[in-house]
Amino acid sequence: MSTQHWKEIVAQKRQQRTESIPKEWILTNLPSQDTLNVIDFPESCGLLTELDIQITNTEVTLLLEKLAQGTWSAVEVTTAFAKRAIIAQQLVNCLTEIFVDKALARAAELDAHLKTTGKVVGPLHGLPISLKDQINVKGVDSTMGYVSWAFKPATKNAVLADILEANGAVLYVKTNIPQTLMWGETFNHVFGRTTNPYNRNLTSGGSSGGEGALVALKGCPIGVGSDIGGSVRIPSAFNGVYGLRGSYGRIPYGGCVNSLEGQDSILSVLGPLSNSIGGLKVFVKSVVDQKPWFVDPLAVRKPWNEEEYQLIEHGKGEKLCFGILWDDGITKPHPPVIRGLEETKKALLAAGHQVVDWKPLNHGEFYKAAGSIWSAAAAEDFRVSSAPTGEPVIETMDLSYEDVDAPPTESIPLFRPNPNGISSYELWQVQRRKRDLRQEYLDHWNATAVVTDTGRPVDAIISPCAAYVAPPHGMNKSAVYTTIWNVLDYVALVVPTGKFVDPVLDAPRPPHEFYSSVDKENYEFYKPETFKDAPITIQVVGRTLEEEAVIGMAEIVDAALKAYSPKL
Amino acid sequence: MSTQHWKEIVAQKRQQRTESIPKEWILTNLPSQDTLNVIDFPESCGLLTELDIQITNTEVTLLLEKLAQGTWSAVEVTTAFAKRAIIAQQLVNCLTEIFVDKALARAAELDAHLKTTGKVVGPLHGLPISLKDQINVKGVDSTMGYVSWAFKPATKNAVLADILEANGAVLYVKTNIPQTLMWGETFNHVFGRTTNPYNRNLTSGGSSGGEGALVALKGCPIGVGSDIGGSVRIPSAFNGVYGLRGSYGRIPYGGCVNSLEGQDSILSVLGPLSNSIGGLKVFVKSVVDQKPWFVDPLAVRKPWNEEEYQLIEHGKGEKLCFGILWDDGITKPHPPVIRGLEETKKALLAAGHQVVDWKPLNHGEFYKAAGSIWSAAAAEDFRVSSAPTGEPVIETMDLSYEDVDAPPTESIPLFRPNPNGISSYELWQVQRRKRDLRQEYLDHWNATAVVTDTGRPVDAIISPCAAYVAPPHGMNKSAVYTTIWNVLDYVALVVPTGKFVDPVLDAPRPPHEFYSSVDKENYEFYKPETFKDAPITIQVVGRTLEEEAVIGMAEIVDAALKAYSPKL
User: Active site: which residues (chains A, B) (predicted)?
Assistant: First the structure.
């Protein structure tokens, strides 16, 4: 037990963070807390130059070209994103660690290298990339929201951080998470809560909530999160950005800190968030091209497969058949979510693709299995991690909890650990059933070949990201729509539809026949004004280790959505 | 609980097996049990025709050509191997299920197809393949040595059985295993013990002991075993045949029965045994070419990679650097095993390759971790599986145990389950440590780049298969030399050196400084006459999911051994 009270450590840690912000970037004209939608504030606040704004609004692929050509220097690009990230921090509290000085020094080295040799260091030359707090960067803390882990800087980089740096990326900030990572929202005692830039009364999601909010505010071109049950995709969805959950081991996880360490059954994966699919693609390809399996024993030996990206196995992408999951048989999605699916269907049909209904199979049982497996020993894991300073384990994401001395409001956590754990034999029986469920689901997928015009089974599934768009703090209570794909180890990519909650288009619908009291509660929970301005997104889901093809198909879906309903 | 005594079920099951043998293939001139080496008996016993002998002695790749050309019909080839398998059964008791009639009917269909269309059904057209008992074949029992599982025929094929049949293979027999599969020898109450055809006082190894003995006697051209801690490689080694342990999920495991189901940390894999590397290669390539990941959710999406087979990443195989593991720091191998390594070293040097010493790292800790993970709930697993008929769980592979009513001799099992199991949290801690051990080992491997002439880390490791060649029944008490590669998930391929125990060349050596009492006991255990005629083999070990390159490098090792010391 530490001799200091844990709140003293928190105070010191927050002080350290404040001091790490360049003084000249501290804003005095911040909007009041009543201003809910702050998405446009960075460009109007006066801190960013025209060039900063131009750089931070440039799509990743083009940005990399400009960096490689020397049109924009790495120092210019790093400065622009760092400034915008610091603005984001002051708006939605999305950062944990800030090391701009180091980043600018690195950027200057990259510029010198390009000038001297005429060559880029790698495919990400000069690109700032933000990392979720748990990804170790040498010399920087990875508290993961635990007070007990503060002031223990990492002694070396995670494998991914090394690879990104070798590829020329510039690391400059780490982003906020919930304590334990096992929540779909972002709050911890050390750094507080990350809010949603489209509506600060709403959650940014979690556990990669800091990344989701930062990418939405264009404080980074690519951010890296992790996803065990939706932790990349929930923040991508709630903040309206692109995000990829690849299969176990496709992106190297080695050298990160984590919860539930030693749990070998449903693995967390690292994955990118970005404002374009191009950002996701260049991230995956450039990381995989570094052959991470040579340095990380859990990284899968599968080189980037260009044929898979070209959709050779999917009829070259010329005519695809998508299966739309309208609801999972547990919770019917809210009107904006349904509108997102409907718009996607129309867009795909207009682009000449086929769309069929996707029937859910045992989604509830999958979710229960995931909960049983993670909770088998989670309570002990959390106790051990939080114990050294006596910090309590957080039991709700409710706002009321922020006064930790007040009795917490009743709240159903996303994931409630079994306080006593279970035996290894019981655990094996759940894991065995999970394996059988995966086989049944694959058979179910393959059986769709009879309903498609392509002769193939459905090429990809279009799925909601949750039964709702970004909900108010403390109200993200179910992750069935994301966790199902983790348990199946399917590749899932979040695509924003470009739509936002609209009180007219998304008026409440008449009650349906409820699956359960949970479904009924979810129905009653919906009021358009509660979800004002929240982005509407979908998931594109493909088979295990099919990252290339899912990226290729998501590009088709994205283009179809943009063509069907062009933005001004 | 069954109303029948379990011994009655055993009697019925054995009767069924006897009746499944074609009467005309029952031999009356079997050698007496005093005849230890029966490896040449099949060709001298009089049952096989000249053609049968020619077919069963033909290397797999050539055999497939002759089948494809119609030189030999599938019926001829199936008949030859089936006869030889039945001879093998009468010599060493290697079979559990025999279905020759079905096989010949299938072979006749294949012949008709070839005649009618001029085309083969697939790359394994007409090739008989034997399967370890646990691999489900529709209509046939998979008892896995449990009395309780007898007379419960499988309702459908395992994924692999389907793929082999789609490739044109002919299934005709299943092979013997130890009860639970978690032994390095082969004995169970249902089918009894499989002995070693080179010396019937010695074990055939396990758990794929039936396969090892059958392949050695050329009763099949390719057999399929499974390997969680050495179960393909121990029988390959003890019976002097080639055998491959690929990485988790490279060969589809779906639809097999198994022990320790739901254990998701150190997975069992299926793998081929054969009399040539060509047999292993055609098996892996033809199975992977069927894209098993479309039908088995645990099969890895990694197509056959011809560039990896061509050793592009290993300098095109022109000059390789091998690391030789002389001993693992726990048990120093016996003289014949050391001679095998020495001969391999000389052969590789003569072929122009580099050879350095491979330093073991934490092999004992890896082995202990594997034991802790498997035993976390194994006792309960075994109890549940054996309970319905009241059959005891076997606790020793000693000969004395075959009279199950006599008190068993004291014997240390390979794998002793923890009778009470452990909690999930304890299990996670072991699994976490195992992950860290894997990282340390990979770093250790990569660090060898400084000692090679190639600029690369060591290309492959040459390792003993065990500290001894095939030992007497009940004496295979450690599997550290194989299990280490399972925990690391490295690809390991057994290559026979073509040498056998020789009382002069393999005379006992003076005592060394013993690592422990286990090492001392192992030293004292060695007498050349105990191991008379036992084959000498090595393992070629490569990185995770590097099946193609390991096959390519093993071909180089095999060719070097044959060139250095040509057989007459």
Answer: 132, 207, 231
| Mean pLDDT value across residues A90-103 | 98
Is there a contact between A427 and B432 if contact means CB atoms under 8 Å apart?
A: no
- Rounded to a whole number, what is the distance in Å from the CA of B531 to chain A's nearest CA? 38
Q: Grade residue B402 by pLDDT with cuts at 50, 70 and 90.
A: confident
Of B301, B488, B489, the CB nearest to A302: B301
**Residues of chain A positioned with their CB less than 8 A from the CB of B422:** 423-424
| The listed CATH number (3.90.1300.10, 3.40.630.10, 1.10.10.10, 3.40.50.300) that belongs to domain A16-367+437-564 | 3.90.1300.10
Residue among A560, A365, A364, A568 nearest A462 (CA) = A560
User: Is the per-residue pLDDT at A125 higher than 80?
Assistant: yes
Taking residues A205-231, report their average pLDDT: 98
- Residue pair B398/B404 in contact (Cβ under 8 Å)? The answer is no
pLDDT over 70 at A405, yes or no: no
Q: Which two tokens stand for residue A514?
A: 């409820």
> Taking CB atoms and an 8 Å limit, are A380 and B546 in contact across chains?
no
| Token pair of A334 as six digits | 């809210």
How far apart, in whole angstroms, are the C-alpha atoms of residue B111 and residue B509?
A: 56
> pTM of the prediction?
0.96
**What SS3 state is found at A204?**
coil
Q: What is the CATH number of domain B11-256+267-304?
A: 3.90.1300.10
Q: Environment class of residue A468 by beta-carbon count within 10 Å: exposed (0-12), middle (13-18) or buried (19+)?
A: buried
B118 in contact with A, Cβ within 8 Å: no
3-state secondary structure B448-488: HHHCCCCCCCCCEEEECCCCCCCCECCCCCCCHHHHHHHHH
| Range 405-464 of A in CB contact (< 8 A) with B | 421-433, 435, 438-439, 441-442, 446
pLDDT at A568 over 50: no
**Could you tell me the two tokens for A387?**
């114990």
CATH of B320-376+422-568 given 3.90.1300.10, 1.20.1560.10, 3.40.190.10, 1.10.150.20: 3.90.1300.10
Does position B408 have pLDDT exceeding 50, yes or no? no
Measured between beta carbons, the chain A residues lying within 8 angstroms of B438 are 297-298
pLDDT at A407: 46
Which residues of chain B are within 8 Å of residue A302 when distances are taken between CB atoms? Answer: 300-302, 545
Question: What does the alpha-carbon distance between residue B202 and residue B185 come to, in Å, rounded to a whole number?
Answer: 10
What percent of chain B has pLDDT above 70?
97
Stretch A168-174: mean pLDDT: 98
Using CA atoms, how far residue A163 sits from A143, A218, A288, B66, in Å, is 22, 23, 9, 50
Mean pLDDT lowest among A103-117, A176-190, A282-296, B383-397: B383-397
Q: Is residue B411 predicted with pLDDT exceeding 50?
A: no
Segment B407-430 mean pLDDT: 72
Burial tier of A269 (Cβ tally within 10 Å: 0-12, 13-18, 19+): buried
Query: For the residues A486-497, what does the mean pLDDT come to?
Result: 98
Q: Where in chain A is the domain with CATH 3.90.1300.10?
A: 16-367+437-564
**Other CB atoms within 10 A of residue B32 CB:** 5
Report the chain A residue with the minimal C-alpha distance to residue B488.
Answer: A297
A73 is known to lie in a ligand binding site: no
**Per-residue pLDDT at A280 exceeds 50:** yes
